[in-house]
């Protein structure tokens, strides 16, 4: 019998996808790329954390 | 005075029944029934004990699993929080490097980036828009 796993909501809430901005310079574009990368990383880390907590 | 002979008569009757073949048969049947009932009750009690023991073992296993789960959850949360702090610092560091870089806009104003941004700003038709613009 496996007890029902309850994980904190933190694991299920990824950062929102950074909206495509109005770009006026390469720096704006680079900032947006960084935001995109870290939003994706945040979600992957939370998924990995949820898997670790569930022992998968 | 009459009651004593009557009681003695009853006692004699019972004794006669006990020593008679029918009495012996009743005695043997009663003995068998008693042994069977005793055995049944013993087995029933044994089954109840086994079931209670199994429930206890299951309950202990569940509690152990829950404790393990809670420990794994706490460890994962701590790991996630630590990683989030690292990410915030790393992101800020990269953005500082970006802001210190020489200003330019050739990439931002390129047709490919324009198409990508246009596509991403219009969810649902993003791939089509990007595809048309790049051809």
Please provide a written account of the structure.
The complex is a heterodimer of chains A (56) and B (135). Chain A has 1 helix and no strands. With 56 residues, chain A is mainly α. Chain A is elongated, with a radius of gyration of 16 Å. Chain B is mostly helical and 135 residues long. In chain B, helix 1 packs across helix 2 (21-100) and helix 3 runs antiparallel to helix 4. At the A-B interface, helix 1 of A face helix 2 and helix 3 of B.
Keywords summarizing the entry:
heterodimer, A: 56 residues, mainly alpha, 1 helix, elongated, B: 135 residues, 0% strand, rod-shaped, disordered C terminus
**Overall average pLDDT of chain B:** 86
Major β-sheet annotation of chain A: none
If interface size is counted as residues with C-beta under 8 Å from the partner's C-beta, which chains form the largest one?
A: A-B, 33 and 36 residues
Coarse structural class of chain B: mainly alpha
How much of the residues of chain B is beta strand, in percent? under 5%
Distance between the termini of chain B: 132 Å
Q: Report the total helices of chain A.
A: 1
Task: Give me the Rg of chain A, rounded.
Answer: 16 Å
Q: Please state the CA-atom Rg of chain B, rounded to the nearest Å.
A: 46 Å
Largest sheet of chain B: none
| Oligomeric state of the chains present here | heterodimer
**Average pLDDT across residues of chain A?**
86
- In which range does the helix fraction of chain A lie? 40-55%
Shape of chain B: rod-shaped
How many individual β-strands of chain A?
Answer: 0
Low-confidence stretches of chain B: 125-135
General shape of chain A: elongated
Strand content of chain A: under 5%
Write the element-wise H/E pattern of chain B from the N-terminal end onward. Answer: HHHH
